[in-house]
Amino acid sequence: MATTAIARVVEVEGERIGLDPEGYLVDLADWSPAVAFALAEEEGLSLTDEHWEVIEVLRSFYDRFEMAPAMRPLVKAVGQALGPEKGRSIHLMRLFPGSPAKVAARLAGLPKPTHCL
Amino acid sequence: MSAPFPSDLLVILRHGSHGTNWLREGLDAALVAAAFGRGVSLLFMGEGVTALLRDQQVGPLGQKGTSATLEMLAMYDIETLLVEEAALERFGLTAADLMLPVRLLSAEAIAAQPGAHRLVLTF
Amino acid sequence: MLLHILNRSPATSRVYQQALVSMAPEDRLLLIEDGVQGALPQLVRYFDGLQGRLFALREDLVARGLEGRCEASVQVVDVDGFVALTEEAERTVSWY
Question: How far is B29 from chain A (nearest CA, A)?
Answer without folding.
Answer: 9
